[in-house]
């Protein structure tokens, strides 16, 4: 431990006993150099361990999540007459009627083509996904297309989809009302005939959540937007407030009880379980202030309170690490304390502040528990907000909440979707990080 | 006038004030800025501050107060007889608000003229249908009482909005005028500006205290309710955690001790993983790695902090648990019964915490002045000796902060514990047994299915409160110790 | 300085936009509650949004307890309209509701949820289950030679020679779940009574309450593991333990027949048919509760409730039963109740 100090007086003593050469290391130097190599190796190992875990995690995320980006569709031309349209619209379950028309058309098409495998209408029922919503949406928006042939590409059921993306093995299939093993023969033939094909699942990237029986319709797009609005709130509030609080505590605060109280409070808030912030958010923002439920604004406010301690602690640490000489020099040439801090200390502390912000935002972006109580976890499928301002107040979900909900659903196809959602979440996170890193690189320096 | 416009006008005024104030100050010093007390920009800023502060304060207060006043006065005009049975005045008022909003929208979309909106009568028009045509959904038919109230609501809001616009803009102009007239080369503009900034800083720092007050207030009532139903002694000193769903057969045992032990044990293991790895990684990245390696490796490790905890939970459950089981389980050393254990959760949580330690420490180590390193290296110390004896002690306060932050995260983490450590509360020293933490139990009791007035559900609040108090005491202790032993480098 | 200005204007804008939001009226139905009802509610909400001009309702998860708590917080737009529950509302909760002004509650039973035991597809088959076997395998203490001792059974074969000779490893719902109550009442307690252990305990001088408590007491030596998470967590546990057996909802099992093998109880395999006929014993009703004061105020609330219990949706062959909900044979009565807005207090009169 005390090599450096002990060796200095020892050197002349040993020098008297034997001649030393700069080219030959004595035992002591060897030991010190070995310690040096070891120390460096520990450091490298630590970095590699970190990267190793990252790679393992990424590997499992990507291998589990990639199937979410493809889907199996049925391509079919459908002609819906005005009468059929009116009949469907007169029912309570309109989407069911549309689906029945599609299945009937599908049946006719297969008959014309002369499919070899035997099947019945129930098999088509099992092969197709929950497509009534798509059909109704199309025809109510384009009534002029009634009576004309329209090409549709509609998703298959999650099990057929799983069969083609390798999740479901033929030998594992147990006959149930969701899938019979004979359906796979039909699916194989349809695939060979080109009626069924795999393509990129744009709906997953752009769509909103869907019911548990409709994995084909589920998308993460709407919740990406929800997370985006939440992150705006968090960034806009937590960064200025966090930095301002740290500057006050680190540079201006007199040492008194009040400052101590603030200080203890901040480090304590970092240890408060995130769900408690949810309890707070429900009580203060929704029940007391009357803000809308399930709104990204409330989510953002709750996450702001949650990330503030992280940002404050890291900002204070980096303010603290700016050498006093910088302040002294600024004050010496006549700057006020305020000017010294804002013009000289703050820019130098910026890398650390940005690191704290990255970590704080990353934590906020991935957090589910506080959203549980303010109504953003569950089934929130209102789609995209109408405008920028309503994006803050309209009910929406957030990415981690969406992933959490999907991971709990019974259909294994949602499990893939959850991992796919994690990929999107990480992409979002990395975009955010890259911006911060570019900024950090501009500020980073050593003196 | 829409609020956004008012805000923009005030901001524009402030901008104009900045420019004019600056010019006036310079003019009063004959264009020679050296004769000024403060820099010219301070004069400009002080005018901008005076323009904005009072007007925005008035705007915010007005916007909070006006709806309450209008609502109360409109509600007072509704006679109790006209409230349909089974309705409260509050619900009727939300109907009123909705109709008023709808009329506003109708006017905005041009479906109705402003006169029509104030004069339509339910006797002649089906308001619900009229509004339905332009996409305003109303829950029920609009009765005459509601429509009248809605029209009054609109009238009063319109008056209020007008008054608000006048008052806010008036205040902005007044502030502008006062500040502008005061602007002179001897005016101490910098002191005004810096004092304002200081108040803003103090306010920002106080938000943490407000948050704490909020948390305590939102937990305290349910906590008291819990202690009315369940003896405090057994909660704090009971060594069994066994809630029963129905309270059948002797009821639940809700002792916090095993949960606290689990929290402590899992956090300890997590820190034993995260601190050495994170610290060594930080040292390597800031002292040894080339800038290129550093610029890639550091952000990569930071990504570990951003992976959602549910991924870590699944990683613990599906990968780490079985792996540990194959080594320490019945086939190996025989210490482990099942994949979910303190060790599993602790290891995985440690991985998650690595960037908390490494990234923050790295920045802090990087900020240690190069002169200190050069001095040490110049005296013949090796690089590692410099790091251990010069750089680390200098960076220690920051590193301790980073470790405390990591520890805080470990205490507050839920998902990894739920999936990796199991749900069983147990007092044991064996790290290969399943245990659980306070946080995990807060979540599970809060999101459970039991009667919301029962001790089993309310215990979540008591757990939250207890954990809050314990961490608060630990933090006070930490502050005391740090104060006592902090090394002054200045 | 620009930084301070930014802070100030940010705060102002945040406050302004926040208070602007207050005045807005909610146009979607807000539902919260049980995570068991959530899948069904999400199906209905999606179809409701697809089939009507009302916006898709928001269905939150968070448990029956939290859902009912928020339901009973009061009336008004910033409270929820519907609470989902996997158990009936308790009288004490109705009182709290009434105290907060939520006096008129419509109780809607949507159907039944079957609870099944299942093991890994490649694992041993459990085909001779009786409630008594499960009781004897999982109880904390058993009566052996007239004395209460810690459960000595190590393998399923120890309990019943017809069962496979594998170590007992059961993953049962944690005490936070409503499913746990059903498991205790319909499996453990029944098993306890069937084996005669209940009577023996009463004869040993225990009160009936204590005896019931002892019956539903689950062993804590690691052979039985409480799962506080969802069924997906139970599935993951089963995946990593070929000898394990877990408790699932019927719908969850039916969606995962390629991974799970179901166990029969008293020789009956669970299915919507055997559950609605009562042959399969372990099931429970699911509910949602509607705030009557919000009907007519929140657009689409009554329509949502009517849609939920309509024959096309909740009846046999509808999307709910297709997913695994056991249809309520008395659905028509429920439809009348919703149509006429009959509240709980009117019902009990």
List the SSEs and their pairings.
The complex is a heterotrimer of chains A (447), B (490) and C (349).
Chain A: H1 3-17, H2 27-65, E1 70-79, H3 82-89, H4 94-113, H5 121-127, H6 132-141, E2 149-155, H7 158-165, H8 181-193, E3 196-200, H9 202-206, H10 221-252, H11 257-269, H12 274-288, H13 296-320, H14 324-332, H15 337-366, H16 369-373, E4 378-379, H17 390-393, H18 399-407, H19 412-443
Antiparallel strand pairs in A: 1-2, 1-3
Helix pairs in contact in A: 2-19, 3-4, 4-6, 10-13, 10-15, 11-13, 12-13, 13-15, 14-15, 15-19, 18-19
Chain B: H1 3-28, H2 40-77, H3 89-109, H4 114-119, H5 127-133, H6 144-182, H7 189-229, H8 232-237, E1 241-242, E2 253-254, H9 257-288, H10 291-306, H11 309-328, H12 342-367, H13 370-378, H14 383-412, H15 415-420, H16 438-446, H17 455-485
Helix pairs in contact in B: 1-2, 1-6, 2-6, 2-7, 3-6, 7-17, 9-12, 9-14, 10-12, 11-12, 12-14, 13-14, 16-17
Chain C: H1 2-23, E1 30-33, H2 38-51, E2 58-60, H3 63-71, E3 82-85, H4 91-99, E4 105-120, H5 131-138, E5 141-144, E6 147-150, H6 156-159, E7 170-173, H7 178-194, H8 197-203, H9 208-215, E8 224-227, H10 231-239, E9 245-249, H11 250-255, E10 260-262, H12 272-276, E11 283-291, H13 301-309, H14 311-314, H15 319-323, H16 331-339, H17 344-348
Parallel strand pairs in C: 1-2, 1-3, 7-8, 7-9
Antiparallel strand pairs in C: 3-11, 4-9, 4-10, 4-11, 5-6
List keywords for this structure.
heterotrimer, B: 490 residues, mainly alpha, MetI-like fold, 2 domains, two-stranded antiparallel ribbon, 17 helices, 74% helix, flat, C: 349 residues, alpha/beta, D-Maltodextrin-Binding Protein, domain 2, nine-stranded mixed beta sheet, 11 strands, 43% helix, globular, disordered N terminus
What does this structure look like?
The complex is a heterotrimer of chains A (447), B (490) and C (349). Chain A has 447 residues and is mostly helical. Chain A folds into three domains: 1-13 and 21-40, no CATH class; 68-200, no CATH class; 221-443, MetI-like (MetI-like fold, Orthogonal Bundle). Helix content of chain A is 67%, strand content 5%. Chain A is built from 19 helices and four strands. In chain A, strands 2-1-3 form a three-stranded antiparallel beta sheet. Chain A starts with a helix and ends with a helix. Chain B is mainly alpha-helical. Chain B has two domains: 3-187, no CATH class; 230-485, MetI-like fold, CATH 1.10.3720. Chain B has helices at 3-28, 40-77, 89-109, 114-119, 127-133, 144-182, 189-229, 232-237, 257-288, 291-306, 309-328, 342-367, 370-378, 383-412, 415-420, 438-446, 455-485; strands spanning 241-242, 253-254. Residues 1-8 and 15-23 of chain C have low confidence and may be disordered. With 349 residues, chain C is α/β, with parallel strands linked by helices. Chain C has helices at residues 2-23, 38-51, 63-71, 91-99, 131-138, 156-159, 178-194, 197-203, 208-215, 231-239, 250-255, 272-276, 301-309, 311-314, 319-323, 331-339, 344-348, and strands at 30-33, 58-60, 82-85, 105-120, 141-144, 147-150, 170-173, 224-227, 245-249, 260-262, 283-291. Chain C folds into two domains: 25-112 and 285-348, 3-Layer(aba) Sandwich (D-Maltodextrin-Binding Protein, domain 2); 124-243, D-Maltodextrin-Binding Protein, domain 2 (3-Layer(aba) Sandwich), CATH 3.40.190. Classes of the chains: A mainly alpha (447), B mainly alpha (490), C alpha/beta (349).
């Amino acid at each position: 431990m005390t090599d450096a100090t002990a060796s200095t007086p020892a050197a002349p003593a040993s020098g008297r006993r034997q001649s030393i050469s700069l080219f030959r290391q004595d035992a002591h130097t060897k030991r010190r150099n070995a310690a040096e190599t070891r120390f460096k190796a520990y450091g490298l190992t630590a970095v590699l361990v970190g990267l190793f875990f990252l790679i393992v995690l990424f590997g499992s995320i990507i291998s589990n999540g990639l199937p979410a980006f493809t889907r199996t569709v049925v391509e079919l031309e459908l002609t819906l007459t005005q009468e059929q349209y009116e009949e469907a619209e007169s029912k309570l379950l309109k989407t069911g009627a549309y689906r029945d028309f599609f299945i009937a058309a599908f049946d006719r098409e297969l008959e014309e083509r002369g499919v070899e495998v035997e099947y019945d209408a129930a098999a088509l029922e099992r092969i197709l996904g929950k497509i009534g919503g798509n059909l109704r949406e199309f025809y109510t928006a384009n009534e002029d297309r009634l009576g004309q042939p329209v090409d549709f590409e509609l998703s298959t059921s999650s099990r057929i989809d799983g069969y083609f993306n390798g999740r479901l093995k033929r030998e594992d299939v147990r006959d149930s009302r969701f899938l019979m093993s004979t359906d796979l023969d039909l699916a194989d033939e349809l695939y060979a005939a080109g009626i069924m094909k795999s393509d990129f699942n744009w709906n997953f990237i752009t769509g909103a959540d869907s019911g548990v029986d409709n994995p084909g319709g589920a998308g993460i797009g709407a919740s990406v937007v929800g997370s985006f609005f939440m992150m705006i709130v968090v960034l806009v509030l937590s960064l200025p407030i966090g930095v301002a609080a740290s500057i006050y505590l680190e540079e201006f605060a007199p040492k008194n009880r009040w400052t101590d109280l603030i200080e203890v409070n901040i480090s304590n808030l970092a240890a408060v379980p995130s769900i408690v912030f949810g309890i707070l958010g429900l009580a203060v923002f929704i029940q007391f202030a009357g803000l809308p439920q399930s709104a990204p604004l409330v989510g953002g406010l709750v996450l702001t309170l949650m990330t503030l301690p992280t940002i404050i602690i890291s900002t204070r640490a980096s303010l603290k690490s700016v050498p006093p000489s910088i302040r002294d020099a600024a004050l010496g040439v006549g700057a006020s304390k305020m000017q010294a801090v804002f013009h000289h200390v703050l820019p130098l502390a910026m890398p650390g502040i940005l690191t704290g912000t990255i970590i704080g935002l990353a934590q906020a972006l991935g957090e589910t528990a506080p959203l549980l109580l303010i109504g953003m976890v569950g089934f929130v499928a209102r789609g995209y907000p109408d405008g920028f301002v309503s994006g803050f107040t309209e009910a929406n979900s957030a990415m981690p909440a969406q992933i959490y909900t999907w991971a709990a659903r019974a259909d294994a196809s949602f499990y893939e979707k959850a991992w796919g959602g994690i990929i999107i979440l990480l992409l979002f996170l990395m975009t955010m990080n890259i911006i911060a890193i570019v900024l950090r690189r501009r500020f980073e320096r050593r003196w | 006038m829409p609020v956004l416009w008012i805000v923009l006008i005030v901001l524009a005024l402030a901008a104009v004030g900045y420019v004019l104030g600056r010019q006036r100050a310079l003019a009063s010093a004959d264009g020679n800025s050296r004769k000024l007390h403060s820099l010219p920009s301070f004069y400009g800023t002080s005018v901008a501050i005076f323009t904005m502060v009072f007007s925005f304060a008035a705007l915010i207060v007005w916007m909070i107060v006006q709806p309450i006043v209008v609502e109360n006065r409109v509600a007072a005009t509704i006679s109790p007889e006209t409230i349909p049975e089974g309705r409260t005045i509050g619900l009727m008022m939300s109907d009123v608000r909705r109709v008023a909003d709808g009329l506003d929208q109708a006017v905005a979309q041009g479906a109705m003229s402003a006169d029509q909106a104030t004069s339509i009568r339910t006797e002649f028009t089906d308001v619900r249908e009229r509004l339905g045509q332009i996409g305003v959904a109303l829950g029920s038919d609009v009765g005459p009482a509601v429509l009248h109230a809605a029209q009054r609501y609109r009238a009063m809001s319109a008056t209020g909005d007008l008054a608000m616009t006048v008052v806010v803009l008036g205040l902005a102009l007044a502030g502008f005028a006062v500040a502008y007239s005061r602007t002179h080369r001897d005016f101490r503009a910098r002191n005004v500006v810096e004092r304002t900034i200081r108040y803003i800083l103090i306010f920002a720092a106080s938000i943490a205290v407000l948050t704490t007050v909020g948390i305590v207030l939102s937990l305290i009532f349910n906590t008291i309710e819990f202690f009315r139903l369940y003896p405090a002694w057994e909660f704090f000193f009971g060594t069994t955690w066994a809630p029963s769903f129905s309270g059948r057969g002797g009821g639940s045992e809700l002792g916090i001790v095993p949960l606290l032990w689990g929290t402590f044990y899992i956090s300890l293991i997590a820190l034993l993983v995260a601190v050495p790895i994170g610290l060594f990684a930080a040292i390597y990245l800031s002292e040894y790695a080339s800038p290129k390696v550093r610029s890639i490796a550091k952000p990569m490790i930071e990504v570990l902090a951003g992976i959602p905890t549910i991924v870590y939970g699944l990683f613990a459950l599906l990968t780490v648990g079985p792996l540990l089981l194959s080594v320490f389980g019945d086939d190996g050393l025989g210490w482990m019964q099942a994949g979910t254990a303190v060790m599993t959760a602790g290891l995985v949580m440690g991985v998650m915490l690595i960037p908390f330690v490494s990234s923050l420490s790295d920045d802090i180590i990087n900020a240690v002045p190069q002169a200190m390193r050069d001095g040490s290296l110049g005296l013949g110390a090796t690089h590692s000796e410099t790091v251990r004896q010069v750089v680390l002690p200098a960076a220690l306060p920051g590193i301790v902060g980073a470790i405390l932050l990591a520890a805080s995260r470990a205490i507050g983490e839920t998902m990894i514990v739920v999936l990796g450590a199991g749900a069983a509360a147990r007092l044991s020293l064996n790290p290969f047994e399943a245990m659980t933490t306070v946080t995990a139990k807060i979540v599970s009791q809060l999101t459970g299915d039991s009667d919301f007035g029962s001790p089993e559900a309310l215990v979540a609040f008591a757990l939250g409160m207890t954990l809050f108090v314990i961490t608060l005491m630990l933090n006070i202790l930490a502050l005391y110790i740090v104060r006592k032993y902090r090394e002054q480098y200045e | 300085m620009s930084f301070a200005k930014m802070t100030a204007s940010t705060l102002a804008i945040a406050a302004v936009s926040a208070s602007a939001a207050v005045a807005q009226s909610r146009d979607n139905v807000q539902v919260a509650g049980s995570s068991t009802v959530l899948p069904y509610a999400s199906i209905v909400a999606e179809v409701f949004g697809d089939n009507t001009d009302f916006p898709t309702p928001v269905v939150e998860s968070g448990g029956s307890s939290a859902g009912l708590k928020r339901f009973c917080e009061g009336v008004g737009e910033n409270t929820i309209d519907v609470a989902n529950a996997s158990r009936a509302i308790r009288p004490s909760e109705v009182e709290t509701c009434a105290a907060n002004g939520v006096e008129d509650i419509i109780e809607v039973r949507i159907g039944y949820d079957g609870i099944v035991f299942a093991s890994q597809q490649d694992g041993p088959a459990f085909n001779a289950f009786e409630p008594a076997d499960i009781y004897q395998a999982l109880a904390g203490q058993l009566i052996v030679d007239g004395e209460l001792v810690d459960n000595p059974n190590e393998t399923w074969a120890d309990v019943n020679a017809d069962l496979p000779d594998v170590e007992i490893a059961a993953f049962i719902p944690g005490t936070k779940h409503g499913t746990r109550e059903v498991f205790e009442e319909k499996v453990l307690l029944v098993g306890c009574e069937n084996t005669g252990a209940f009577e023996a305990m009463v004869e040993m001088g225990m009160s009936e309450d204590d005896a019931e408590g002892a019956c539903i007491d689950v062993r804590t030596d690691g052979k039985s593991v409480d799962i506080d998470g969802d069924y997906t967590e139970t599935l993951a546990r089963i995946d990593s333990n070929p000898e394990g057996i877990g408790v699932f909802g019927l719908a969850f099992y039916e969606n995962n027949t390629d991974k799970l093998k179901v166990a029969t109880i008293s020789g009956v395999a669970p299915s919507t048919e055997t559950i609605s006929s009562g042959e399969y014993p372990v099931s429970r009703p699911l509910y949602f509760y509607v705030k009557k004061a919000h009907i007519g105020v929140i657009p689409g609330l009554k329509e949502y409730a009517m849609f939920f219990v309509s024959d096309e949706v909740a009846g046999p062959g509808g999307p709910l039963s297709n997913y695994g909900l056991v249809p309520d044979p008395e659905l028509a009565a429920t439809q009348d109740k919703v149509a006429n807005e009959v509240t709980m207090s009117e019902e009990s009169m």
